Amino acid sequence: MIDSHCHLADETFSADLAEVVSRAKGAGLERALVVLAAGNPREAAQAERVVELWPDVRLSVGVHPHQAHQFADDPRRAATAVREQFAATPSARAVGEIGLDYHYDFSPRDVQQAVFRAQVRLARELERPVVIHTREADEDTIAILREAGGVRGVLHCFTGSPALADAGLALGLHISLAGIVTFPKAAALRETARRVPLDRLLVETDSPFLAPVPYRGKRNEPAYLVRVLDTLAEMHQMPSGDLARRTTATFHALFRP
Prior knowledge:
With about 260 residues, the protein is α/β, with parallel strands linked by helices. It has a single domain, classed as Metal-dependent hydrolases (TIM Barrel, Alpha-Beta Barrel). Helices cover about 40% and strands about 15% of the residues. The protein has an eight-stranded parallel sheet. Strand 3 (about 60), helix 3 and strand 4 (about 90-100) form a beta-alpha-beta unit. The longest helix has 18 residues, at about 110-125. It starts with a strand and ends with a helix.
């Protein structure tokens, strides 16, 4: 079982990181993909602690759309920052999370798009997958990925429409489900999730955010991935262990850890 997206380098975990990692291992997790904000020295330092505690974890480095405004003068600098940190991070395996967020618009949309494009180009150059964040920006996200062509990666913490799922799958992307899929009012998301082929499905916590039922409202952590997996296994009428093996194999095929 692998948590394909979490933020263990977040300061929320700084006080009890060793215990969080221990619980993850105890829950049966083989590894996790820990997402880092490019150019954040505090996260980079905590990521080193994570790797010491859990050598099997892998890392992803990117400029989130919320921080894209920091590169408004030259969006190519975002790709440069990611490239430099990637080269200095032996466990790095992906570029992300990157993408577009039109819900909060913390960065101007044209800047978000330029920074996204620059990082997608870098991922292709590095021959690494991308971890994509998209919120209320489906058409532009798909258009940029389609324009780039040949991009491997995952739509993380998927909460989108059937149309977005179909468009992402048509581009060869994977789709990752998080704790939201366990929420009672997430019936539409569960219905969309059923259309994702099992060999394109990943599971994640996005911790410390979006804790699944019955932990909703608490800090999320990788150990709670079991609840996401159980929910999806029930949907597909298969044993959780079988789905765990399928999603683990899919993770390895995509991220080549």
